[in-house]
Amino acid sequence: MNKPKPRELIVIRKEQITPNMLRVTLGGENITTIPANQESGYVKLIFPNGNAKPLLRTYTIRHQRSDEIDIDFMLHEDSGVACTWAKKAQENDSILVGGPGPKKMIEVSSNWKLLVGDMTALPAISVNLAELPNDSKGYAVIEVISKADIQDLKHPSGMTLKWVINPYPGKNVSALLDEVKSLDWLEGQASIWAACEFSSMKTLRDFFKKEKTIPKEYLYISSYWKLGNNEEQHKIEKRIDAGQAYSSQQ
């Protein structure tokens, strides 16, 4: 299947969801080129880079309506090209958007569920929680920069939300793992969905694979960013890590 061609979308409005989360709503006449039911799928925001190759930044579709999509931006202290654009964006500004890429949803056939992530994964976690079957049970462990960044998320009553306050995301790599280790591990097969900073991801991956021996069909884990790296550098680190992980299994 051919990849969808990038299309130009228009800024419809902006909303400060929490102190460190900014929502930009995109629409325009080309919005119909994005298929329906893409919440939690990702798009590529494409930024000019002089005479060099354009810069691509990956973001989750938080909400989708027939004529709009919402993209939530975690506002880092050292804002890169995407966050800087989002902060400055005005109504009717245009941006080139590629994708969407595939949705990554937690496996629902398990006995219970565990979602783990930081603020970069909060949009995807929010969609996963909202789409879980009503009888789901388990936990969502979510790292935010401050108490004011805690959001009211739709979720089944059997899912307990645990919020981890970490003012310096990416520096305390064990913040999420420590909270996960403190959970009462439920009976039966768990399915895991986890996404966060690169180093935090590696600590969680070791725990889930080695200590909890979660089968691969019940484990989705990914790094969405790496402290001190831009997306191009992070992709290189991910490829190296994937190669090392593969070699260790041989």
TrEMBL record:
Pfam families linked: FAD_binding_9, SIP
Domain of life: Bacteria
InterPro entries attached to this UniProt entry: FAD-bd_FR_type (IPR017927), FNR_nucleotide-bd (IPR039261), Riboflavin_synthase-like_b-brl (IPR017938), SIP_FAD-bd (IPR013113), SIP_fam (IPR039374), SIP_rossman_dom (IPR007037)
Residue ranges occupied by any FAD-binding FR-type domain in the UniProt entry: 4-107
Family according to the record: Belongs to the SIP oxidoreductase family.
Name of the protein in its database record: Siderophore-interacting protein
Organism: Marinomonas colpomeniae
